[in-house]
């Protein structure tokens, strides 16, 4: 986000500030669905707008989505809803010039982090949105090392404002959790940690190792590689998952499982 100020405001400060008819203030996912809009907040802002009009110092920030060829609201969804409720014909806006949706999303999340304490439900939505807009295969590349996986969670953690470990737990929930469990986090009834732990427990119950029949061939090279892999997991567990996180280890086990069973 080192280009944040110049991207949004340009060298002329508020030079791009202009009014826009409220009907052209298009709210669009993922920006419109990142954070729930509180009705009481909307009503309070709408009442203020009815009395004083739209505050020029709080413009709606737009970004031109080239893929859909339209200007969308990336920051100010609550203000748009309030202006509609107040019956205002126009709102003040400023146009951002982000290179892609991922950068625009990072800006939108950063703005909300500055204004509120994000709940685990907020974090789950943000992590999902950020990961969905990464290059395909970034998290599932078989050639990825633990360091690369760790770096991925560190990058996402920095964007959403949490720890890499919490990002990994959220990914476990997003990748393997059922919709009901995810919803409990979104509703604020359960933490990401608790929901991820519950998800892992369910997965353990589904996939348990079975004795290998004696007539099944196992190549010696495969045995050595397996012993090395199990040794690495044992070492990581002995370090209390400090050298390699438990989520990273499970991720690679899942990759191997998919390689064996898919294709």
Poorly predicted parts: 1-15, 136-148
Mean pLDDT: 81
Number of helices: 11
Class per helix and strand makeup: alpha/beta
What profile does the largest beta sheet have? 5 strands, mixed
The CA-CA distance between the termini, in Å, is: 40 Å
> Biggest sheet, strands in spatial order?
1-5-3-4-2
Strand content: 5-15%
Describe what this molecule looks like in 3D.
The structure is a single chain. The chain is of the alpha/beta class and 263 residues long. Helix 2 (39-52) packs across helix 3 (77-86). Strands 1-5-3-4-2 form a 5-stranded mixed sheet. Residues 1-15 and 136-148 have low confidence and may be disordered. The protein has helices at residues 4-9, 39-52, 77-86, 101-115, 120-132, 146-160, 164-176, 179-186, 192-206, 220-238, 246-261; strands spanning 18-21, 26-27, 60-65, 70-75, 90-96. The protein is built from 11 helices and 5 strands; from the N terminus they run αββαββαβαααααααα. It is 55% helix and 10% strand.
């Amino acid at each position: 986000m080192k280009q944040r100020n110049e991207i949004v405001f340009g060298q002329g400060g508020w030079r791009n500030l202009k009014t826009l008819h409220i009907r052209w203030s298009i709210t669009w996912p993922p920006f419109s669905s990142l954070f729930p809009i509180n009705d009481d907040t909307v009503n309070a802002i709408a009442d203020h707008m009815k009395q004083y009009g739209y505050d020029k110092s709080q413009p709606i920030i737009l970004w031109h989505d080239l893929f859909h060829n339209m200007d969308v609201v990336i920051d100010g969804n609550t203000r748009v809803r309030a202006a509609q409720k107040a019956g205002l014909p126009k709102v003040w806006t400023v146009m951002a010039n982000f290179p892609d949706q991922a950068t625009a999303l990072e800006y939108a999340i950063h703005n909300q982090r500055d204004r509120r304490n994000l709940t685990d439900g907020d974090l789950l939505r943000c992590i999902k949105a950020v990961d969905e807009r990464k290059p395909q295969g970034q998290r599932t590349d078989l050639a990825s090392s633990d360091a690369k996986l760790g770096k991925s969670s560190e990058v996402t953690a920095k964007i959403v404002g949490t720890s890499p470990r919490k990002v990994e737990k959220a990914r476990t929930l997003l990748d393997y959790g059922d919709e009901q469990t995810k919803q409990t986090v979104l509703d604020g009834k359960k933490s990401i940690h608790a929901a991820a732990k519950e998800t892992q427990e369910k997965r353990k119950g589904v996939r348990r190792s079975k004795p290998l029949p004696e007539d099944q061939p196992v190549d010696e090279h495969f045995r050595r590689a397996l012993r090395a892999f199990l040794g690495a997991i044992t070492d990581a567990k002995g370090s209390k998952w400090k050298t390699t996180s438990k989520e990273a280890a499970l991720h690679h086990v899942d990759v191997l499982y998919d390689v064996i069973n898919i294709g």
